[in-house]
Inverse folding.
């Protein structure tokens, strides 16, 4: 199995080199045979890497403990799902997953564009294959998953493996990394299209539609990956948080921010032919940040919970990154004339400039996070002292930025393209603004004194209102023409312009998430050492320890508490937080018990035993509104899917171009 | 003499805690202070939130925190003691002084630079394209034309 796996990876590497050379030469000499041959190489690479991945998965599932990778990341007692998930549980396997996903994307790109974008496709293929080539180099020479354990010349078989990191043995965790990789890898596609269009100086913006769709799909995966990670942290780590500003979390968030910026500013290019250079920069930055994020995860440059074992692999990434940056810069700078803006800005108070601010804030936030992530490295280099830049830093910097972004979410869509009159501003803003102030005032009166929370809730009300008004006005207009009820009219409205109204739905999802984030200002917690029969309180909850039991199965030993919760006089349910100790790795994990409600979650964690082992330590938390984050996430997915659905009315974006008057004039009417 | 008194108090209280087997996390101040200190076991989380079973770092650190809290030390004194023992990296939030000040102000400098850029872009985009001299036409005709252009654009953009 390992021979087969290694062989196909090497073959794929050779093919990727051929594909790069073939498509560049083919594109240059306009040789259709070479171009087609290079594209078929892409399909073959996909097939070969599928075989390689299957080989690894079979080895994991059957427990082939001759392989170093299988020993390090799997053991006999693990359920099959997690044996499968061990594919991406470690450095070597996850790099193979990277390669395989990139091969999947490349194959799909080549297939769907077999009749479109023919002039730029060779360069798109070449860009994708350069990336593929890089990862295959790593798969072959640096981090091969098919290494066998050997002493001298004899292959060794171990009796059992060390098992997958127990923290990863959780269903959401089994899909969180592939989702994130789908995002990371997918951003290679828009990048490839950008490079292709730059090299061939694509006229028109057919290619930008394609790029936008790919970005949207990838953005969706990335969002899913990030939120799944948050949901996993919330449900598994036992401290009740969903975001810790860990270096690797930040790394996944950075390309998301720039991709979000791109999805907005691309509208400027489609409609007005503006900001072309900037869009190129954003697409490239997104992909470069993906590679950079992979580098952070794997090099051990910054300390992180997510980091893989440290290795020399970091240097490879630095080299690749340097090549990419140099190449992209060269192409963009060499083609500034082709990227020149076609129209001018008419007014500062317009949709166009609101996009500028949106981009500014997204990129500034990206920069702040990147800065905070790398600052410890920088500071150590300068002062020689190790420092930590942790969650308090990021929260302080990013909460105001995030709130301003939320504000723009509401304001931006209310500005008209080109320019907005004061009258329309007043008409659009007065009610939402009054509503927001009323909401904040009501909360203040109700005793909410937390400044950011007040601002956040107020803005959430404001943005939700503006979105609602947009739907309501459009739907009313449709109903006035076609009859029917308002809801059907709203669906019809969204169907006519899926991009616009899908975008609003995504905004609504973001608003709901902010409601959830703001709820964290009111978290409560208590820790108690308890015996059976003890009771303790947290806020309005009374908690009674009904039982504490323990036991074991072949994978882990466990202790479990049975806790009855009641609120006031009414009984609300029994929760069973559990503590596990995995045998293979001798690591402990918490299986927290959560009572999820829309207003607040009751969250119990079995933290361990007291010093004298007589009492159980139970941590209890109340997290207000946290469920809205996950609800907002579903709304975001729904909105993105609406965006991706084709519009009923095909949208043309006529350019409102200002052309200098030349020497011949049309006759003037008298 | 006062120091002796307080150290006696610390010992007595520590003994008391040990006797009770009190988990330090039951103390609210310990949790709050522990959230500002990084657990150095490699987990990357705070001393309060480190989730390792019997973490070799967070466990003793919490006990020490509780001792200090019970001894009546101020928050700042406790944090200072930890910085003295483990270096500044134990603070989750770098102190805003010296070189580290740069860490705090740089994001805002970034925003300012970005604002300047946006301002520049807006100004550049707003500069009207150089127009060649157009045909002569009277004000009324021009106004009519402009109105029509406005109307058409309105339609296009909505």
């Amino acid at each position: 199995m390992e021979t087969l796996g290694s062989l196909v990876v090497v073959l794929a590497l050779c093919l990727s080199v051929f594909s790069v050379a073939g498509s560049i030469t083919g594109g240059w000499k306009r040789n259709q045979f070479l171009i087609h041959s290079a594209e078929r190489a892409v399909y073959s690479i996909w097939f070969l890497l599928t075989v390689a991945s299957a080989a690894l998965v079979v080895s994991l599932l059957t427990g082939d403990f001759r392989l170093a990778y299988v020993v390090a990341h799997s053991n006999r007692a693990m359920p099959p799902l997690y044996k499968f998930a061990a594919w991406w549980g470690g450095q070597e396997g996850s790099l193979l997953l990277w390669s395989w996903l990139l091969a999947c994307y490349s194959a799909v790109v080549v297939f769907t564009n077999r009749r479109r974008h023919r002039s730029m496709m060779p360069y798109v293929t070449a860009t994708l294959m350069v990336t593929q080539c890089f990862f295959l180099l790593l798969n072959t020479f640096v981090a091969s998953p098919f290494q066998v354990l050997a002493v001298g010349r004899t292959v060794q078989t171990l009796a059992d493996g060390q098992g997958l990191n127990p923290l990863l043995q959780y269903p959401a965790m089994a899909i969180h990394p592939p989702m994130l990789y789908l995002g990371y890898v997918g951003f290679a596609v828009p990048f490839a299209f950008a490079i292709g269009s730059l090299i061939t100086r694509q006229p028109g913006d057919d290619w930008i539609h394609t790029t936008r769709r790919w970005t949207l799909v990838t953005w969706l995966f990335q969002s899913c990956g990030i939120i799944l990670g948050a949901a996993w942290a919330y449900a598994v780590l036992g401290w009740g948080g969903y975001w810790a500003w860990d270096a690797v979390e930040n790394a996944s968030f950075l390309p998301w921010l720039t991709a979000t910026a791109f999805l907005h500013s691309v509208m400027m290019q489609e409609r007005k032919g503006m900001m072309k250079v900037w869009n190129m920069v954003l697409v490239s930055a997104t992909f470069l940040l993906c590679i950079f994020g992979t580098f952070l995860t794997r090099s051990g440059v910054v300390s992180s919970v997510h980091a893989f074992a440290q290795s020399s692999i970091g240097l490879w990434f630095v080299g690749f990154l340097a090549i990419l940056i140099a190449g992209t810069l060269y192409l963009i700078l060499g083609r500034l004339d082709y990227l020149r803006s076609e129209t001018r800005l008419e007014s500062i108070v317009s949709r166009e400039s609101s996009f500028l601010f949106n981009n500014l804030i997204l990129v500034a936030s990206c920069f702040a996070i990147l800065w905070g992530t790398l600052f410890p490295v920088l500071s150590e280099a300068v002062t020689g002292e190790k420092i930590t830049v942790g969650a308090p830093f990021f929260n302080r910097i990013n909460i105001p930025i995030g709130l301003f972004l939320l504000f723009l979410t509401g304001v931006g869509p209310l500005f008209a393209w080109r320019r907005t009159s004061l009258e329309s501003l007043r008409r659009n803003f007065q009610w939402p603004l009054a509503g927001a102030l009323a909401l904040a005032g009501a909360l203040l009166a109700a005793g909410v004194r937390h400044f950011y929370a007040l601002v956040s809730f107020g803005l959430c009300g404001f943005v939700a209102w503006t979105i609602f008004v947009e739907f309501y006005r459009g739907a009313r207009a449709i109903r006035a023409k076609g009859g029917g009820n308002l809801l059907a009219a709203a669906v019809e409205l969204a169907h006519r312009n899926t991009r616009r109204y899908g975008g609003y739905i995504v905004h609504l999802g973001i608003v709901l998430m902010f409601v959830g984030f703001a709820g964290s200002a009111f978290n409560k917690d208590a820790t108690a050492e308890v015996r059976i029969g003890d009771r303790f309180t947290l806020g309005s909850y009374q908690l009674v320890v009904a039982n504490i039991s323990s036991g074991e199965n072949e994978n882990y030993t466990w202790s479990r508490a049975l806790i009855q919760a009641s609120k006031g006089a009414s009984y609300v349910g029994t929760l069973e937080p559990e503590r596990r100790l995995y045998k293979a790795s001798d690591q402990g994990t918490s299986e927290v018990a959560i009572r999820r409600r829309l207003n607040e979650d009751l969250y119990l964690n079995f933290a361990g035993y007291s010093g004298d082992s007589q009492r159980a330590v139970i941590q209890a938390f109340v997290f207000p509104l946290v469920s809205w984050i996950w609800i907002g996430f579903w709304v975001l997915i729904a909105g993105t899917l609406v965006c991706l659905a084709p519009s009923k009315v095909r949208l043309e974006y006529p350019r409102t171009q200002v052309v200098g008057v030349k020497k011949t004039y049309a006759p003037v009417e008298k | 003499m006062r120091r002796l008194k307080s150290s006696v108090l610390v010992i007595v209280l520590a003994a008391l805690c040990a006797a009770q087997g009190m988990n330090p996390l039951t103390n609210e101040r310990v949790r709050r202070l522990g959230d500002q200190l990084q657990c150095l076991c490699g987990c990357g989380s705070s001393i309060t939130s480190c989730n390792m079973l019997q973490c070799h770092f967070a466990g003793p650190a919490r006990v020490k925190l509780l001792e200090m809290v019970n001894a009546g030390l101020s928050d700042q004194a406790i944090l200072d003691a930890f910085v003295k023992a483990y270096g500044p990296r134990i603070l989750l939030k770098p102190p805003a002084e010296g070189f580290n000040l740069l860490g705090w102000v740089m994001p805002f400098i970034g925003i300012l630079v970005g604002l300047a850029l946006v301002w520049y872009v807006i100004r550049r985009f707003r500069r009207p394209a150089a127009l060649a001299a157009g045909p002569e036409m009277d004000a009324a005709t021009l106004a009519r034309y402009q109105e029509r252009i406005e109307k058409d654009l309105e339609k296009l953009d909505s």
